């Protein structure tokens, strides 16, 4: 019995120490970046209260992979489209100019950078934070910092909540906060 306790105590100590980087506690990327046709997020702009809508509208096949089409609709009606998928290694990839690039790696250690598309890069700034927005109060939020090495003032501090996705984005001179969403059949608030 003593030998069993000697083995169990170090394992429990390892599990309780530094959960944010523990290989035993993987992040469920699909929870933080939900990709399902019909998902829709409505954000309010802090500088002028205009509305920005993100919506997963379709899937597309490029090469051998299926990507989810995310359309952003701005308050003036203009739109842009990006294509995302979650890779086998649990990383969110963006399809850009014929290639896959890391968009977010939720499992990276804090402050460990990854290179993305078009001179963008990112890193996990903090984990296990709480965020209160019009759509609700969210816990276990992960904050992701994104910036561009060539273009100034395009940085973003994006906060992702499990089960919802992006809930807040703090940017140069303005921010976006989630006012409502329908994600995987669930309405917020």
Describe this structure in words.
With 189 residues, the protein is mainly beta. It is 10% helix and 53% strand. The protein contains two helices and 13 strands. Strands 1, 2, 3, 4, 5, 6, 7, 8, 9, 10, 11, 12 and 13 form a 13-stranded antiparallel sheet that branches. The longest helix is centred in the first third of the chain and has 15 residues, at 2-16. It is globular, with a radius of gyration of 18 Å. It starts with a helix and ends with a strand. The model is unreliable at 1-25 (pLDDT under 50).
> What is the molecular shape?
globular
Q: Quaternary state, please?
A: single chain
Mean pLDDT: 89
- Give the SSE string: HHEEEEEEEEEEEEE
Query: DSSP helix count?
Result: 2
Q: How many β-strands, per DSSP?
A: 13
Major β-sheet, in short? Answer: 13 strands, antiparallel
Structural class: mainly beta
Beta strand %: over 45%
Q: What's the gyration radius in Å?
A: 18 Å
- The poorly predicted ranges are 1-25
The CA-CA distance between the termini, in Å, is: 51 Å
């Amino acid at each position: 019995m003593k030998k069993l306790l000697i083995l169990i105590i170090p394992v429990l100590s390892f599990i309780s120490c530094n959960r944010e980087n523990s290989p035993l506690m993987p992040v469920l990327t699909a929870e933080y970046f939900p990709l399902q046709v019909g998902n829709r997020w409505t954000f309010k702009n802090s500088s002028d209260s205009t509305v920005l809508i993100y919506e997963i509208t379709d899937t597309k096949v490029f090469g051998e992979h299926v990507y989810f089409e995310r359309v952003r609709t701005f308050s003036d009606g203009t739109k842009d489209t990006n294509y995302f998928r979650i890779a086998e290694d649990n990383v969110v990839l963006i399809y850009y100019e014929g290639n896959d690039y890391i968009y977010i790696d939720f499992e990276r250690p804090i402050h460990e950078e990854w290179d993305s598309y078009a001179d963008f890069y990112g890193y996990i700034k903090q984990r296990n934070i709480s965020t209160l927005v019009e759509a609700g109060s969210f816990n276990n939020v992960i904050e992701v910092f994104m910036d561009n090495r060539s273009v100034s003032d395009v940085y973003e501090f994006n906060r992702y909540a499990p089960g919802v996705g992006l809930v807040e984005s703090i940017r140069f001179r303005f921010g976006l906060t989630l006012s409502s969403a329908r994600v995987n059949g669930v309405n917020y608030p």
